[in-house]
């Protein structure tokens, strides 16, 4: 008796089982370094760090490490991870950052007191990735900065130590501290107000990096915990319903072929 058809059917059956298990994971998996951007229509809720709209926005865990700057204590940072979520309306981009911090440091009344702080870094020209260390002269970055004293700034940087405050800023911030966790929201119009500001077209992904300072650890300036470059998933990509439909179509075809081969194998075994 020729057992090859049955063996082939068994192999294909195993392939179908593997596909059935793997396809849902492939569909829902998030590419490395991606921060999803959710379309939303409730700007008032998004403007609040505790707004209900944020419950519908997925967050990505972003690991942090010391920037290693050549300053006293530059390698001594304490924040190791930040949760980053992003949403957009027709007019504004929103980024919410959340991280654990056992102390709420908001003032600088003494020369040895520093507020907690967080910053978001974006390329001024979103078509080219700048150096992670505050950009360069030829490829600058925009920096959105907030600290625990509720001070916020929109900055332009062309390398370490070159920050310039941008005037006429339309950056908005909001923050809460609860249960040992900061939640800070930045938002800004999609269109940049000048050539030195990132314009969010929605037709391409935009690189993003973050930095966090823990004031109680006397972190300030170059003594900070930073991320690698990630990207805000604003452009078209392989994710979404069309990609999902293709994957499930392939799985369906595999199931049909397996069934046909199995039937043929059984028929031949019986000598039909």
Automatic annotation (TrEMBL):
Segment forming the signal sequence: none
TM stretches of this protein: 245-266
According to the UniProt record, one GO cellular component term is:
periplasmic space
Alphabetically sorted, this entry's keywords are:
Electron transport, Heme, Iron, Membrane, Metal-binding, Transmembrane, Transmembrane helix, Transport
Q: Could you tell me what this protein is called?
A: Complex iron-sulfur molybdoenzyme family reductase subunit gamma
Q: Name one GO molecular function term.
A: metal ion binding
Q: Name one Pfam family in it.
A: EB_dh
Cytochrome c-552/DMSO reductase-like haem-binding domain span: 51-225
């Amino acid at each position: 008796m020729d057992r090859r058809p049955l063996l082939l059917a068994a192999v294909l059956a195993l392939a179908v089982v593997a596909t059935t298990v793997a396809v849902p994971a492939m569909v829902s998996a998030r590419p490395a370094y991606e921060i999803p951007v959710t379309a939303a229509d409730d700007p008032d809720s998004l403007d609040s760090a505790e707004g209900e709209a944020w419950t519908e926005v997925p967050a990505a865990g972003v690991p942090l490490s010391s920037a290693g700057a050549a300053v006293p204590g530059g390698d001594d940072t304490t924040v190791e991870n930040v949760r980053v979520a992003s949403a957009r309306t027709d007019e504004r981009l929103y980024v919410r950052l959340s991280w654990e911090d056992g102390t709420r440091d908001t003032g600088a009344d003494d020369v040895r007191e520093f507020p907690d702080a967080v910053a978001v870094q974006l390329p001024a020209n979103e078509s080219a990735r700048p150096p992670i260390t505050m950009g360069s002269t030829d490829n600058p970055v925009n920096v959105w900065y907030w600290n625990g004293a509720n001070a916020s700034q929109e900055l332009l940087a062309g390398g370490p130590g070159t920050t310039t405050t941008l005037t006429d800023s339309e950056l908005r911030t909001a923050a809460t501290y609860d249960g040992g966790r900061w939640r800070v929201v930045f938002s800004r119009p999609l269109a940049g107000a000048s050539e030195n500001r990132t314009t969010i077209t929605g037709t391409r992904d935009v690189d993003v990096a973050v930095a966090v300072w823990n004031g109680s650890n006397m972190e300030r300036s170059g003594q900070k915990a930073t991320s690698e470059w990630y990207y805000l998933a604003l452009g078209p990509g392989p994710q979404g319903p069309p990609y999902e439909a293709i994957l499930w179509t392939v799985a369906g075809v595999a199931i049909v072929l397996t069934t046909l081969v199995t039937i043929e194998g059984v028929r031949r075994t019986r000598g039909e």
